[in-house]
Amino acid sequence: MKRNRRVIRAPAELGVLEALQLAVTVHRRGGLDDAQKLYERILKAAPGNADALHFLGVLQHQRGRSERALELIRRSIGANATVPDWHNNAGNVLLEMGRVDEAAQAYEEAARLAPDRADIHNNLGALRRHQQRPAEAEAAYRRAIELDPKYADAYTNLGSLLDALGRKNEALAAYCEALVLRPRHSQARKLLGVAYYTLGRLDEAAQVYREWMAEEPDNPVPRHYLAACTGENVPRRADDGYVENVFDRFADSFDAKLAKLHYRAPELIAQAVAGLCGEPRRALEVLDAGCGTGLCGPLLAPYARRLDGVDLSAQMLAKAEPRQVYDRLARAELTAFIEAAPAQGYDLIVSADTLCYFGELHGVARAATHALRPGGGFIFTVEALDADPPGAGYHLNPHGRYSHAQAYVREALEAAGLAPVTLQRVHLRTEGGKPVEGWLATAQAAASPATDAAAREDAAAQGA
Asked: 161-179 pLDDT, tens per residue?
C-alpha cells in the first residue's frame, strides 16, 4: 500500500523568494524559532534582502528584543524606504521603547507615504496622546474613522482619550459605536462598563458585564468587572485567566505606559531592599514575584547570587528574558510557586504592584513564611484603602485592582509569623491625572535562635 508523502525542500534548495514566502507563512503560524532560522539563512545568501531584514526585525520585537528589532527594521528601510508599513512598524517599536520623538518621525513618514491608511492615523493618534497632545490625538483618531467608518479600534481609542479628558458622555458614545461595529469587542465592552461606573450609572455598568457574561460565560474578564461594579461575589483574588488577559494585552507597551504614569514601585522596592539588606554583595537568593517585564530585575541583581522571576503572563516573561538579569524565569501563579519552593529557599522575596490583584493576603504571606530563611525579607506594594471596610479589609475597585486597609495588611503579615512589619505610605504612580497612593510593606521571617544569639553578641560588642 503506497502512502502519499509531501516532500518539503530544505531552505538551501529554495530560491530566495520561495524561502521568504515559506518563512513568512511559518512566522504567521507562530513558529518563531523556525521562521528565525529561515530568515537568517536567507540573509546569509542575500545579506541586503529588505523583506527578510524587516520580518526578522518584527520577529525580534515579538521576542522582546527591541534594540535588535529596531536595528533590523531600520536596515530594511535603508534598503527600501517606500513601504509605509515598515515606517509604521518602526514607530511601534520606538514608541514602546519610549523614544517618542523618533516614533513620531516614523509615523509621520508612514502617513506621508500612505495618507489614506486609517490604521496609520490610528497609530499616530496613540503617539500624539503619548506626547500629551490630546487635540492632535483626537484629530488623528477622527481622521482614521473618517477614512474607515467601520474601524472599531479607532472608536475605542477615541473613547479612551475622551474619557481621560473628562468627556465621559462622548466617550460612552464612542464605545457604543465600537460595539455596534464589533459586538464582541472586548476592550470596548470593558471600557464602556468602567465609563458607566465612573459616571455613577451602576445599573448600566452591571448590565454591560452581564450581557458580556451571557455571551461568554467562561470569560473571567466580565465576571471580574461585574464583581467590582456590584460588590457581589467578589473573589478573594483575581482569577488567573483575568490576570493573564490583562498583562498579555499590556506587555508590548507596559514599560512605556508606566514611564508615562511616573511609575515608582520598582524604585520604592529597591529603596526598601537597600534599607533591609545594606550594601549589595550578590550574596542572596532572591525571588521577584510577579516580575512582569523585569523592571525590578536590574535593581535586584546586585544583591542576588541567584535571581528568580515568576509571572502568570507569558508575554510579560518574553519581555523580561532579554534583560538577562534573571537566572530563572517561570510562568506560574506566584502563591503556588512560592508554596512549591523549597522551605527556607530564599533570603528575599519582593513583589512590585502585583498583590493589588489579590484581595486576601493571608495565603501569600504564609507562603512567604514557608519559603524565607530565618531573618529573610518580604517586601511588596499594594494600593491603599483609607476607609477601614467591615469584614474583609480590602476592596475591589471598578478598574479591576484591589486596595487594602493598613490594619489588614499588618494583620495578615503578623498572622503568618512575619515580624517586624513596617508600612510606609507611598505615591505609586499617577493615573487619570491623580496620584495613586499605596503601602510599601517590609516584613521579616523570624530569626533562628542562633541568629538571635549572634545579633546579641554583635550588639554587646558594639556597646563595649
From this structure: 999 899 999 999 999 999 9
